[in-house]
Every structure is written in structure tokens, then in C-alpha cells.
Amino acid sequence: TLKRRSSAIKKKREIFKRAEQYVKEYRIKERDEIRLARQARNRGNYYVPGEAKLAFVIGIRGINQVSPKVRKVLQLFRLR
């Protein structure tokens, strides 16, 4: 039980350090965004922050001989 307890404590510390690292990283990113916006404003320009991009890549042979639910999903995604 002593080994288990010590390993649990080590794990908790590691998890806490990881969480701190994430917080630090996001604070730095936030500061950079603010800095870039201010810099652009001072120079008379506009700063457009980056947006999240997501792409689905699906290879399909066709819509025939597919169950109705799957067919409907493909139609909704406009993958006819």
C-alpha cells in the first residue's frame, strides 16, 4: 500500500504539472493574440485572428445499396 500511495502522489504531481503547462501555454497564446492586435492597430492595419479549420475526407463508391440512415447522412453532408 505504501508503494501504491507514493506512486499515486507522484502521478498527481505529474498531472498537476501538465495542467499548469497547458494553462501557461494558453496564456502565452492569448497574450500573443492581444499583442498582434495592438501592433496592427498602432500601424493602422487590421488583425484577423486565425480560425479553427476542420476537414472531413471520405472516400465512397456510391450511395446505392446503403442503409437508409447512412444514405440520409451522406445526403446531409452533400456526398451524393
From TrEMBL:
InterPro entries: Ribosomal_uL30, Ribosomal_uL30_ferredoxin-like, Ribosomal_uL30_N_euk
Pfam family of the protein (one): Ribosomal_L30
Domain Large ribosomal subunit protein uL30-like ferredoxin-like fold residue range list: 55-80
Domain of life: Bacteria
Domain Large ribosomal subunit protein uL30 N-terminal eukaryotes: 2-49
Biological process, per Gene Ontology: maturation of LSU-rRNA from tricistronic rRNA transcript (SSU-rRNA, 5.8S rRNA, LSU-rRNA)
CC per GO annotation: cytosolic large ribosomal subunit
Single GO MF annotation: RNA binding
Database matches in PANTHER family: 60S RIBOSOMAL PROTEIN L7, LARGE RIBOSOMAL SUBUNIT PROTEIN UL30
Record protein name field: 60S ribosomal protein L7
Organism: Nocardioides humilatus
